[in-house]
Amino acid sequence: MSNVHGVRNYIAGGTIAQYRFVKPGAADGEVLQAAAATDNIIGVCIQPGGAVAGERVDVQYSGIAEVEFVGVVARGALVTSDATGKGIAPAPAAGSNVRVGGIAEVTTAANDIARMLIALGSFQG
User: Fold this and answer.
1) pLDDT (tens digit, 9 = 90+) per residue, 12-54?
2) Which residues lie closer than 8 Å to 3 by C-beta, 6 or more apart?
3) CA distance 39 to 83
4) Residue 2 has pLDDT above 60, yes or no
5) Which of 54, 57, 74, 84 is 20 to 30 Å from 33 by CA-CA measure?
6) Beta sheet of 113-124, edge-to-edge order
7) Phi, psi dihedrals of residue 5, rounded to the nearest 5°
8) Per the confidence metrics, is the pTM higher than 0.90?
9) Counting beta carbons within 10 angstroms of the beta carbon of residue 26, is it exposed (0 to 12), middle (13 to 18) or buried (19 or more)?
10) Burial, 93: exposed, middle or buried (Cβ in 10 Å; 0-12, 13-18, 19+)?
11) Contact between 20 and 86 (Cβ < 8 Å)
């Protein structure tokens, strides 16, 4: 399976919307839509129309991706996942670990689909 230009094809383990963060599924080669800031984010679903369980889905894991945001995230701020896989600014409690999906390229508002530099990582509040 090729990894052309930072995109890899997986099998959807459930419903995944386009422009949402994804995490590893239960099996190798499977992904699920991210559902928390603590999920192990591995990329963004770029499959037009998204996918349902069992369908093939393209996931972008490097470069500039478009992400749907749940609210305001300032340009240059870190981005993580909310409960629906949308981008949100992380706000971890002291001692809590948060996974990061990237850095906002522009300041966003609720329901914006905006550019984000994919920069996977984690930090502790």
Assistant:
1) 999 999 999 999 999 999 999 999 999 999 999 999 999 999 9
2) none
3) 10
4) no
5) 74
6) 64-68, 113-124, 97-104, 78-81, 87-88
7) 55, 40
8) yes
9) exposed
10) exposed
11) yes
